[in-house]
């Protein structure tokens, strides 16, 4: 007998994460999306993996992920509603053998489908798995201060990273690999997905100018924590903007990295 899917740890994690992101103001209305790579064995405890509800075009060739199972937020869904109705707002899909369709195994009970950013998510999963086999999460949100800081800084990822590192001693410790930055692009397209995935080969965090941020990780806490730290640091930067007297010297940033046995992204520190 299968266990109750609503009691699955991965469903609860999605409910908790979306609720927290909404309460923090990162994901207004239907903004934001999350995809979570699941283990087949774990999903099999809750669902009949041979029962496909329907198929949905992926919108690109996802052959590199054939057979992989993901729980994903739905298009047009509000994060504030996920916790009270997971089956309507979330879906569990498996990339089919043709690589161009996804098999719905559970969810989107109102006939919905995955987020419009699904191709960008899947492309990012492919990139992150190529450099980190333990990777599991892609999280996209619209944190206020990150967008504001991005609006007043050059579109230069090393410059942006440096400003973050100089604003909060935690920053270099949490993301020594830096933050990637893309110029303003049309969201929901394969073009921005391809550009994001290319950045994801080097970064766990990618800012979309005038839009938001993508964070990734081995688990929900890591991805959430990366975005959370960027947002807190961007808030500090924006609150002090135009009044800054003290920034963290490069030498201190180097010493912080050395203390934690981290290698900061090259080409930033003097």
Describe this structure in words.
- By secondary structure, the protein is of the alpha+beta class.
- The protein has two domains: 1-115, Class II aldolase/adducin N-terminal domain (L-fuculose-1-phosphate Aldolase), CATH 3.40.225; 117-256, 3-Layer(aba) Sandwich (L-fuculose-1-phosphate Aldolase), CATH 3.40.225.
- The chain contains eleven helices and nine strands.
- It has helices at 9-23, 40-44, 79-82, 86-89, 118-131, 144-152, 157-167, 169-174, 190-199, 220-240, 250-259; strands at residues 33-38, 54-57, 69-73, 90-95, 101-107, 137-141, 180-182, 205-208, 212-217.
- Strands 2-5-4-3-1-6-9-8-7 form a nine-stranded mixed sheet, sandwiched between helices.
- Helix 9 (190-199) links the parallel strand 7 and strand 8.
- Helix 5 (118-131) runs parallel beside helix 9 and helix 6 (144-152) packs across helix 10 (220-240).
- It starts with 8 loop residues before the first helix and ends in an 11-residue tail after the last helix.
Structural features:
L-fuculose-1-phosphate Aldolase; 2 domains; nine-stranded mixed sheet; 11 helices
């Amino acid at each position: 007998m299968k266990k109750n899917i609503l009691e699955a740890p991965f469903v609860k994690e999605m409910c908790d994460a979306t609720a927290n992101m909404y309460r923090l103001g990162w994901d207004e209305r239907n903004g934001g999306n999350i995809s979570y790579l699941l283990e087949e064995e774990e999903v099999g405890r809750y669902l009949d993996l041979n029962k496909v509800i329907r198929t949905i075009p992926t919108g690109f060739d996802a052959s590199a992920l054939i057979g992989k199972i993901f729980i994903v937020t739905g298009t047009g869904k509000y994060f504030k509603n996920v916790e009270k109705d997971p089956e309507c707002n979330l879906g569990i899909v498996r990339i089919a053998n043709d690589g161009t369709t996804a098999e719905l195994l559970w969810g989107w009970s109102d006939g919905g489908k995955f987020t419009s950013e699904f191709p960008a998510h899947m492309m990012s999963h492919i990139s992150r798995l190529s450099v980190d086999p333990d990777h599991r999460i892609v999280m996209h949100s619209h944190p206020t201060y990150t967008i504001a800081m991005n609006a007043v800084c050059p579109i230069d990822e090393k410059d942006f990273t440096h400003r973050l590192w100089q604003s909060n001693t935690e920053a270099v410790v949490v993301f020594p690999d830096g933050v990637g930055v893309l110029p303003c692009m049309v969201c929901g397209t394969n073009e921005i997905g391809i550009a994001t995935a290319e950045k994801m080969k080097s970064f766990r965090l990618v800012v979309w100018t005038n839009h938001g941020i993508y964070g990734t990780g081995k688990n929900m806490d890591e991805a959430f924590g990366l975005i959370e730290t960027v947002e807190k640091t961007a808030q500090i930067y924006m609150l002090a903007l135009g009044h800054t007297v003290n920034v963290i010297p490069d030498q201190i940033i180097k010493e912080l990295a050395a203390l934690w046995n981290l290698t900061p992204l090259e080409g930033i520190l003097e």
